[in-house]
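We modelled the chain as a single entity of 454 amino acids. Its sequence is:
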Amino acid sequence: MNKELTSKELNKFKSNFNKSKYNKLAANVVQKNGVLNSALNGEAIRDLTPVFNIEVKDVGSVTNQKQSGRCWMFSGLNVVRGIVAKNLKVKDIELSENYLMFYDKLEKCNYQLEAAIDYIDEKPNSRQFDILGSIGGQNDGGFWHFFVDLVNKYGVCPKSVQEEVVASSASGEMDAVLNTLIVKDMATLRSLRRAGKTKDDLRNEKEGMLEEIYRVLAICLGTPVGEFVYEYMEDAPTKEEKEEAKEESKFRRIKTTPKDFAKKYLTKDLNDFVLLVNWPIRGYKTYEVYTIKDCYNVKGAPTFTAINVPIEEMKDSAIKAMKDNNPLWFGCDVGAESFRKEGYLAPEAINLNDLFSINLKFDKGDRLQLRASSCTHAMTLTGVNLDDADKPNRWKVQNSWGTDVGVKGIYIMSDRWFDEYVYEIVIDKKYLSDKVYKLLDKEPKALDLWEPVN
């Protein structure tokens, strides 16, 4: 058998292609309209109506992360801001993403420098040390537990107290500076180690490095707010509330700090939330508890855990939570079989197999294992539609890409897409099945940072 392509094979491929009238028609359509538009299944789209018989109320207006990778943070704040709004007696509030971004970057840089010191004697080309160059302050990405650890340590504040700026909304230029700085610092630490410095000596050097990183962040994002004054108007009470309180809406002034603000108005223990994952990879056990080593932003944070469950287990818990009016953070592969502009997440709406006369379908676990798919984006579940048999057929998703995409920022996800491309969801532990609840105290199995699920 030939190891290289031959002229004979190429001529055969071309001849067989040209024999088919369909191939020529498909080529004309795709070259004029693009792949996805040519593969659109209009009948399937008609089934994705933006109507849901279970919807979370008072989820707040659609937000916009713009040209940044903070989806996990935006979704996290979407989950909790309804609690804050209710306690402030307002219909809607947006919490400051810029405030949390500052500390996320600073904490990631500290974690990366600490990891560089911990693994300082590793060979430069070792897998462990090599991967350190791909994490840290230059990366906007994150996970649910990153959000929890930030809020627990630093609190939250209203967006009006610390607004978005150019570098928070379009973080690429700032990240490039941080990337260069943090890698240079890692090189400096290794050079000092070769000169005979101890790890304690290196940690003394780290303080000056972090001060430089703080300076970059403060110039780009502004110094994070400390004590602040928040002035707002309570929303007008309902007729029933007015009769009970005998008063109209009121001007309010709060003098507080982000930690005290969170303590008073974010009256939900974020540690009650549990990360459920669907990782159907050979070698990964169902109903097993996992963690990933070195997958943190805050040094010293508690060990995070992920419980690997069947997809139906994930859906059942999600439906219970939303019936009780709770929005849900979830992670998925948003670019797979989706229409970004129109806001459809539905494999049945994109018929690539018929368009190209090929079969692109293969096992979800294999896609993860071979990195053909991964968790690329976090959004917020805010509703579901159940059919006559009480089974979900479509889900309501609030994205953080502004109101110019989807149905004014809302995406419609088919149940088949949920099966194929949803990998993580965060659920209050009270909505877990008994089988999953019993796993909460189980010691997690630690995975390496380079595992395909990270």
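As a brief sanity check on the tokenised model: The CA atoms of residues 94 and 159 lie 6 Å apart. The chain has a mean pLDDT of 94.
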